[in-house]
Amino acid sequence: MTPAEFKAATRRQAGGRKAKKAGDDSEGMVLGLCDEYLKQGRAKLEKVDPPTKVVGRPPRIIYQRNPFLDLVGTWTEKQGRALFLEVKSTTSHRLPISRPNGLTKDQLGHLRAWSEAGATVALLWVHSGGLKVITLETIEDAAGRENPSIPWGDFPLCRRGPLPSLRWDFLSEIADE
User: Fold this and answer.
1) Which residues does 116 contact at the CB level (< 8 Å), separation at least 6?
2) CB atoms within 10 A of CB 78
3) pLDDT of residue 27
4) How far is it, in rounded angstroms, from Cα 147 to Cα 44?
5) What domain count does the chain have?
6) In sequence order, what are the residues at sequence separation of 6 or more whose Cβ sits closer than 8 angstroms to the Cβ of residue 77?
7) Is residue 15 part of a domain?
8) 174: phi then psi, degrees, rounded to nearest 5
9) To the nearest 10°, the Cα dihedral for 146, 147, 153, 156?
10) CATH at 60
11) Range in 62-66, 106-110, 118-122, 138-142 with the lowest mean pLDDT
12) Is 137 left (phi over 0), alpha (psi -120 to 50) or beta?
């Protein structure tokens, strides 16, 4: 590896670590909101990790296709209606649609399938410390464009919760859609 290649690889790794930390922070914030909804008796949401399989010697972990979205649960306020949410955290002001570095085709397909089955679905997008709720209708409209993506600036921030422990009230946003 040349010095220039090493430097570029190091930059990519550092960028990847920054993105992972930002994603972990965003995930923690969203899971904290889910905990608050549970305490309030409004919803029960659980994070769904992809299924894994351990194979070979030495053992390797293979991540399998996840049939669910990031958060799955029931919406107590809506008589226990199923609630499926995808969470995306980006450093970019645009969220690509149907591409690996954004909302993937699989994730869009899962949003559609669960919606058709009667569940409430939405995308929670975290960027620059803010949170926005994006509907399936908006995502499908963007997916039909030539360069499918959603611009951050086109949507209002999620409303603040009534309590300091509920920084963003995404359930109220979803209910208004």
Assistant:
1) none
2) 15
3) 87
4) 36
5) 1
6) 42, 43, 171, 175
7) no
8) -65, -40
9) 60
10) 3.40.1350.10
11) 62-66
12) alpha
Residue closest to 91 by CA, chosen among 170, 15, 160, 156? 15
The pTM of the full predicted model, rounded to 2 decimals, is 0.82
Closest CA to 158 of 44, 40, 28, 29: 29
Predicted confidence band of residue 177 (pLDDT cuts 50, 70, 90): confident
Give the whole-angstrom CA distance, residue 70 versus residue 32.
14
Query: What is the per-residue burial (b if ≥16 Cβ within 10 Å, else e) of 134-150?
Result: bbbebbeebbeeeebbb
Residue 113 belongs to a domain: yes
Of 84, 76, 79, the C-alpha closest to 40 is 76
Asked if the model's pLDDT at residue 150 lies above 60, the reply is: yes
Full residue range of the structural domain in which residue 46 is found:
25-176
Over the stretch 46-100, which tens digit does the pLDDT of each residue have? 999 989 999 999 999 998 888 889 999 999 999 999 999 999 999 999 999 988 7
Does 20 fall in a domain?
Answer: no
| Structural domain includes residue 12 | no
